[in-house]
Specification:
The protein is of the alpha+beta class. The relative contact order is 0.19. The protein has a single domain, classed as Roll (Thiol Ester Dehydrase, Chain A), CATH 3.10.129. It is globular and about 50 Å long. Strand 4 and strand 5 form a beta hairpin. The protein is built from three helices and six strands. The chain starts with a helix and ends with a strand. The protein has a six-stranded antiparallel β-sheet with strand order 1-2-4-5-6-3, covered by helices on one side. 26% of the residues lie in helices and 40% in strands.
């Protein structure tokens, strides 16, 4: 699949998730095994003052990790997150954040991705490891 077709396919997948739409995730870029997803700042996603809630950051890690797996799906018809670990490194205050996911290992069904969350200045805010199970067609 060409990168433009892959971007359309993953954007459509993202838009089918009511939760992803609610949070406002936007696919910024994609290549096979790698995605960049934006979480635009909204006051509704904060805790105290303008601090972005950790659950929103964790959700970005899960979404970016899942999309990186789907970018290598090869006809898989379904999938699910098996594990998503999050380490928070710094707070996000009143700003958009970006989750960059890169597949580090693809097995027969399990896809392991490393996800880094940064702000627009490139400051690292969180790190995650994500495992996704792709279920082959007919499986």
């Amino acid at each position: 699949m060409s990168e433009p077709d892959l971007a359309v396919s993953l954007t459509e997948r993202l838009q089918r998730s009511s939760f992803a739409v609610h949070l406002g995730f936007q696919l910024e870029s994609v290549s096979p095994g790698e995605v960049l997803v934006r979480l635009p700042f909204r006051e509704e996603l904060t805790t105290v003052r303008s601090a972005l809630h950790g659950g929103a950051i964790g959700s970005l890690i899960e979404a970016a990790g899942s999309l990186s797996a789907w970018s290598l799906a090869d006809g898989s018809t379904s999938g699910r997150t098996i594990s998503c670990d999050v380490s928070y490194l710094a707070g996000a205050l009143g700003e958009d954040i970006f989750g960059e996911a890169r597949v580090v290992r693809r097995g027969k069904e399990l896809v392991h991705s490393a996800v880094t969350v940064r702000n627009g200045d490139g400051k690292q805010l969180a790190q995650g490891m994500h495992i996704f199970r792709l279920v082959p067609a007919g499986g």
